[in-house]
Amino acid sequence: MSSQTILVVDDDERLLQTLAILVRHLGHQVLTAPDVATAATLLDTHEVDLVVTDLRMPNLEGPDLYRAVRQRYADDPPRFIFMSANTGIEEYATFLSETGEPALEKPFNLADMRQVVLQVLAQKPRA
C-alpha cells in the first residue's frame, strides 16, 4: 500500500500527537488539527485520503466537518473514522448510523485504531 495522507482532528493535544505517531508508524503522511476550522483550512490545501476526527469538540464538531467535506468533495470525498466518548448519545448514534463510517468509543486502544485505519484505507485505494 502506498503512502496516503491522514488528517487527525481532536482537541486533546496528547491524543492528537499519539495518533500522529501511529499514522507515521503505519507509513503514512499525517496532518493534525486541534479543531474543525483548522482541519477545514488543511483540507483546502492538501489532498487527504482519510480523516480521523473526534465527534465532539468546541465550536464546530466532527459531524459539521463531515457534512462540509461531503458537500465540497462530492465526487471523491475522503473516508472518515470517528472517535468519541459520546457515541451512545442519540444525536451522535443517529449520525453515525446514517454515515456508515466507523467509530471508536473512547478510550480505545491503539491496536484497535490501527486495525480500523488499515481497513478503511484498504477500502479506498488512491490511483
Strand content: 15-25%
Q: Provide the gyration radius in Å.
A: 13 Å
- The 3D shape can be described as globular
Structural class: alpha/beta
Number of strands: 5
Q: Which sheet architecture does the biggest sheet show?
A: 5 strands, parallel
**Total number of helices:** 5
Query: Roughly what is the average pLDDT, rounded to an integer?
Result: 92
Low-confidence parts, pLDDT < 50 over ≥5 residues? Answer: none
Sheet with most strands: strand arrangement: 2-1-3-4-5
The amount of helix comes to: 40-55%
Distance between the termini: 11 Å
- Write the H/E string, N to C: EHEHEHEHEH
Description:
The protein is of the alpha/beta class and 127 residues long. 46% of the residues lie in helices and 19% in strands. The chain has helices spanning 13-25, 36-45, 62-72, 90-99, 110-123; strands at 5-9, 29-33, 50-54, 79-84, 103-105. The protein has a 5-stranded parallel beta sheet with strand order 2-1-3-4-5, with helices on both faces. α2 (36-45) runs parallel beside α3. The protein is globular.
